[in-house]
SDR family oxidoreductase
Amino acid sequence: MTDLTDKVAIVTGASRGIGRAIALLLAMQGAKVVCVARTAEELEEVALKTAGLAITADVSDEADAQHIVAETIRNFGRIDILICNAGVGSFSLLEHFTLEEWDQMFAVNVRGTFLLCKAVLPYLKAQHDGHIVGIASDVSKRTFQHGAAYGASKYAQDAVLSSLRKEVRSFGIKVTTIYPGLVDTYFNDSKPGNPDTEKTHLKPADIAQAVRYVLEAPAHVVVDELMIHPLTQEY
């Protein structure tokens, strides 16, 4: 199995939910974690727990994406892992969506993934090593009512990662996409621990363990895609 000790990992959306769980678990495995989010107060708390680096940034902004990578290199000298987890979502009938809501989802979910991947690739290619993990969604593979905008952004993110996987494999770089089902987080203004969702949803720690699984796979093993959803969720 691949040892994560001293691996340098950038985790976006690290201030809460899935990103927080991933950052904490990677730190427990000995990784040096760069925690990225837009909310400084919550981010600092996670960075303290991981003994890592906190960078307040908007992943959909090109200058911020380049800053995240530059600061990681300045502090640690390399990048081994990029976790593209930052994401936003809102749900409504298509006719009720505003252009602002549509653009925000594509900015964070798609452009954010594109910009961070683009920024780290020169370093990963120079190393002939590295692992990019995208936290997509099971709606990257299906559609549902009220999910036109969010689903479209996740289909697009999936396409970015899938295409990138084919472009970088010859450099020894792995790209894995994880498709979580329903997760008990703050996503879409919900609050974790709600009795109505606690027994029917995945926990952020479940997704973090899935990330650990793909990162710790032996060097000769490639996990391209991993679907994870609760037993209570039907398809």
Notes: Strands lie at 8-12, 32-37, 53-56, 81-84, 130-135, 173-180, 225-228.
